[in-house]
Amino acid sequence: MNSDVKKFLLKTLVFLLPLALVFGYFEVRLRAMETTYSTKKRDFTQQMDSVEILVLGSSHALYGIDPSQFSLRSYNLSNSSQTLYYDEKLAEKYLDNMPLLKAMIIPVSYFSLWYELEDTKDAWRVYFYKHFWGIESPGMQTFDSENFSYIMMYSPEIAWFYARRGFQDTNVTGSVRPNGWIAATGHEVDQLTDSLAKVRVGSHDRVHFENRLPQNIRNLENFIQLLKKRNIEPVFITTPVSELYAKFARPQVVLKNEAIMKELSKKHNCQYFNYFRDARFTLEDFNDNDHLNPRGAVKFSRILNEEAILKRKLWN
Amino acid sequence: MLFNSFHFLLFFIVVTTTYFAIPQKFRWVLLLGASCYFYMAFVPVYILILGFTIVIDYFAGIWIENAEGKRRKSLLILSLVSNIAVLAIFKYYNFLNGNLSYVLNGFGYQNHVPELSILLPIGLSFHTFQAMSYTIEVYRGHQRAERHFGIYALYVMFYPQLVAGPIERPQNLLHQFYEKHEFQYERVTSGLKLMMWGLFKKVVIADRLAIVVDQVFKNPREFDGPALLIATIFFTFQIYCDFSGYSDMAIGAARVMGFDLMKNFKRPYFSRSINEFWTRWHISLSTWFKDYLYIPLGGNRVSIPRWYANLLAVFLLSGLWHGANWTFILWGALHGFYLVFGLMTKNLREKIADFLKLPIPFKNLLKTLTTFALVAYAWIFFRAATVDDALYISQNLFKNWGDFLLKISTELHIPNLNIEFHKSDWAIAFASIILLESVHYFQRNRDISEFLKTRPIAVRWGIYYGVILVILTFGKFASRDFIYFQF
């Protein structure tokens, strides 16, 4: 070994040692940190043999559906930015472990049919599904750093953020109820403005990809068939949004969503409840332009119980 | 495989370590195998296209060298046509066909030529131009034909510069594959530092600015003048940091193994004229066009109208090289126009400057800012998805500023621009641009790495740790392609 190699190895070792120590410390702490994924997995797997209704979906369901308002024992397995792909994969993975399951509530939001998680700024979440639920995304690569490191999975920026808070995400994990629901922080008037509604709809329009539609419909059809084979009722819903959000939502997308869901429901003989713009919900029911606050969530869950569960007699 | 990926980090460590561990006679095999793996990590099947051009040009080089008279020229033309045919099929076929349909429809006819459903092989324009430079140089007698097929293949495929340059010349690169490169501490660390600086530009600056640029350029009609102008300026820095960041990582990776690749950027936004800009921006491409197109056309040793026509032709082709879209052609045309207009008005501008008796530093600042504005304006055409979008942005850059300025002056904060970008992202974006240009300003008179060598180890390591922490803390690590990969 020549002297330059020795010098390089020695200096590199000394230079990298502090970085390696910090990196290792962060990895250990992040791996031990609770997340909505780890909390939900723990709670759900403890309850799954008694679950009769399973709620899936994105943050619209996460904040908007309180299973304790249902007449049947239910669990809310939704999570922020969870797409139809992950709804199906989660259901598929645990169907055999839910002997009492009668129905699945599958929310289809304004954007659900038109995107996949990899298309969004929340693409990092695909690795959480791999780490916590063992579900791989088709776009995932073997050598993605996120497969090996929690720092890279969270992104170093967010890892720093958690480090400054003692590696605790109390905002999220502390508020996950045992039934999977998260009560949003409350009614915040400054979140309900025209300009923020426009930005919010704009962000959803930016993940509108026409080429995603055929695959998402195929996935939905497979999902319906999977549930029907086991006599489990798929119940499709669209959660309420504020009048401000509805004002900026593109009418052609809203109508197309409704047409697709009605056609699917008719074809497969299942129910679709569209609450997208429902006059029973006022600004007082929203945390922001498209998420219900606890009051709205309780109201919505009771309506769902009444209209989608009791009327369908899903308990028989 | 992206330079800013964990996959590349592993690849680079394994290849470089093996490179220095094995005997010289096996190194070309390692580098060729590694380059194939690197390229196949994108779309494996496209290595066949690369293989096709390599075989053609390898034999063309030998035959040209052995031939005499007109046969030499015929063989060169055959080689060039083969290369251009590959480009034409994979890059320009659908564009030409689409335009043919448009013209035929205008005359009431239908175009029955089908569209091809193919992906553009990554870096096709780069390695095709590098391969063409080989046969041209052999034809000109500046380069001996390479007899070793593996070495020639490596010249085209050398992984650091395979997909986005620098576009090398055979005289500079080929002989280096025969030289034994010892592990040299200074060289290796210098290469690693350059790679780190390139990574900083890519993940901290370019990929953060891209968040704003992508939103605005995807739906420009949703935004007012302030957002359009900010996105245009952000793209000006994004494309520089993205592409020069790639070049730095390529040159750095090659340097670690003992190879010297040509410099591709020299602080282009400090240029005082468009002419100077093109001696500082994508140097390997601009010199390629100069050596193989502009000078053969007669360069400036022709009549003035012909000279201007030569310039316009070169820049139109440069635009077309970048992409099969009218937006790129207009971008090239704009730069051609800038140059011709600059030449036509040179005397007049000098007279005005003399008359105004502007202080030289002010005059230089004015020149730099004007050049920057012209370059930034042209980038609108480069980045916009359609010509309509580009024209819309151009026409609306300075509209609806009243509300924005009023809010800034009365409420002392940047108003909502309808862009999803966190406050901290704005701060980091502006701070990193300032840092970048400060480093460039510092580098006007001295090389920053040479300067650092004279500093105590605590200062040097402090700076290195600082850069690494900034990359790790503020870098955007979601795998995002380099812009120039599409070319």
Rg value of chain B: 24 Å
How many helices of chain A in DSSP terms? Answer: 13
Determine the structural class of chain B based on helices, strands and strand pairing. mainly alpha
The number of strands of chain A is 5
Would you tell me the structural class of the helices and strands of chain A?
alpha/beta
Oligomer: heterodimer
Would you kindly provide a written description of the structure presented here, covering whatever features stand out?
The complex is a heterodimer of chains A (316) and B (487). Chain A is of the alpha/beta class and 316 residues long. In chain A, 49% of the residues lie in helices and 7% in strands. In chain A, strand 1, helix 3 (59-64) and strand 2 (74-76) form a beta-alpha-beta unit. The radius of gyration of chain A is 22 Å and the shape is globular. With 487 residues, chain B is mostly helical. Helix content of chain B is 70%, strand content 0%. In chain B, helix 2 packs across helix 6 (149-157) and helix 9 packs across helix 15. Chain B is globular, with a radius of gyration of 24 Å. Chain B starts with 5 loop residues before the first helix and ends in a 13-residue tail after the last helix. The mean pLDDT of chain B is 91. At the A-B interface, helix 1, helix 7 and helix 9 of A face helix 1, helix 8 and helix 20 of B.
Q: How do you describe this structure in short?
A:
Chain A has 13 helices and 5 strands. Chain A has helices at 3-32, 36-47, 59-64, 84-94, 125-133, 150-154, 156-164, 170-173, 194-205, 213-229, 243-248, 251-268, 294-310; strands spanning 53-55, 74-76, 103-107, 233-238, 271-274. The termini of chain A are far apart.
